[in-house]
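thread: overnight batch results

M.L. [08:02]
morning all. the overnight job finished for the chain we discussed friday. pasting input first so we're all looking at the same thing
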Amino acid sequence: MKLSLFDYHLPSSLIAQSPTKPRDHSRLLVYNRSANKIQHDHFYNLPDYLKPGDVLVFNNTKVFPARLQGRKTTGGKIEVFLLKPVQGKIWEVLIGGRVRHVGQEIKFSQGLQCQVASKLEHGLWQVKFNKTSKEVLKIADKIGSTPTPPYIKKKTRLNDYQTVYAKKTGSVAAPTAGFHFTKSLLKKLKSKGVQFEYITLHVGFGTFQPVKVNDITKHTMHAEFTEVDSSTAKRLVKAKKQGQRIIAVGTTSVRTLEAVFTRAGHKSPANPHTGFKGWINPFIYPGYKFMFIDGMITNFHLPKSTLLMLISAFIGRKKVLDIYKKAIKKKYRFYSFGDGMLIY
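M.L. [08:03]
and the structure it wrote out:
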């Protein structure tokens, strides 16, 4: 399946540089699959499209300020982008600049320093810090900056790049479909009888990586840490058996539910009595048969991205491109801070 099939032209003026305020005043494109019908609305009217008993599944991961500015022993500036703790004081990172080598020492403020331990594939490195992972995260909260995607040119406050329900620290990028939810909107949904469930998937470096192969079936997703506790797993399995609609908020929730409760990207589904805690790397593209979710809330995604391929698997590639064409014509805002879609 050719990568070029997932390309489309987007005017740069439609790339949102900041979130809508209030967040739930972003626009909402609603696509009803069974009726093949598109509606144009605003996100604050989401309750109108849901019914009592529907289950919204949120990813409660929390972005941390992963970009650290340090100095080499020569005094030159260097940036270290924290990706994930590996073991002990070892972290997987990206290192900016051309001059990088094993043994290189980098110093930061707050008494934090690291030494380059090894070179990995895909431009990644491992470094060893002089602090534990928990201490590194605490210091990063004080000295780090928000790791926003390259297409966002404006400086972004961490609070703007965080969902209102973010709880568990560990992501280098936000589950952006959740940006549209406000506390007042969540309250309205709850009062309507919509069930809320929370899973955790820490978004990793792979979210920034473009697909580099012409045949997308040859692409490999980076593994990301996922957790679904046993009580949540039990409620989700029960809801599914009872015929309640499972609506994933964001592609991270889609991938988690399909991987953990079916067999996509993992050897065996989660045991509802024990839940799931581990690494998953499902790559969902056209041809995949969805087994757990009934709908999703998502944003408008980059051309040739794995996220666009996932949406294409759910409603068809031609339909996605047709919807995007209509959205562009109506000047919807695209990408992380852009408008939302409800597909059911």
